[in-house]
Specification:
This protein is of the alpha/beta class and 116 residues long. The protein contains two helices and six strands, in the order ααββββββ. The strands form three sheets. It has a two-stranded parallel sheet. Strands 2-5 form a two-stranded parallel sheet. Helix 1 runs antiparallel to helix 2. It is elongated. The two termini are 18 Å apart.
Length: 116
C-alpha cells in the first residue's frame, strides 16, 4: 500500500511539473486553452474519484460467537475468540466466547489486539 501511495505522489508531482513547464513555454492564449482543458478534466476526474471512494464496499469484519473452551499449559497460547494485531482496523465483535483455563500459559476469551 505504501509503494502505491508513493507512486501516486510521484506521478502527480511529475504531472504538475510538466503542466507548469508547458505554461511557461506556451504563448498566453494557448496556455489559457490548455489550462481550461486541464481544469475541466481534473474536475471530472475528482468527482469520479470521490464517487468511487464513497461507493466502495464496506469491510465485512470479523465475528466470533459461541466459541469453545480453551485450555493452555506452561508456555501455551490459546484463543477462544479473535486474536488480531493492534493496528488492524477490521471491525470485530465477539459474544458468548468460550471459557479459558490456563496453567502457566496464555488464554484469551473475546477479542485480543496484540502488538505486532
Amino acid at each position: 500500500m505504501r509503494s502505491s501511495r508513493r507512486m501516486v505522489l510521484l506521478v502527480t508531482g511529475a504531472l504538475v511539473a510538466v503542466l507548469a513547464l508547458s505554461f511557461v513555454v506556451l504563448r498566453a492564449d494557448t496556455a489559457d486553452l490548455v489550462a481550461t482543458a486541464v481544469s475541466a478534466v481534473a474536475a471530472v476526474a475528482g468527482v469520479g474519484v470521490a464517487l468511487w471512494a464513497a461507493l466502495a464496499p464496506t469491510r465485512p469484519g470479523l465475528r466470533a460467537e459461541k466459541t469453545g473452551r480453551v485450555t493452555t499449559t506452561r508456555h501455551g497460547y490459546g484463543v477462544s475468540g479473535i486474536d488480531a494485531p493492534a493496528d488492524d482496523d477490521t471491525p470485530m465483535s465477539a459474544s458468548a466466547t468460550g471459557d479459558v483455563e490456563t496453567d502457566g500459559g496464555v488464554g484469551i476469551s473475546g477479542i485480543h489486539r496484540r502488538p505486532r
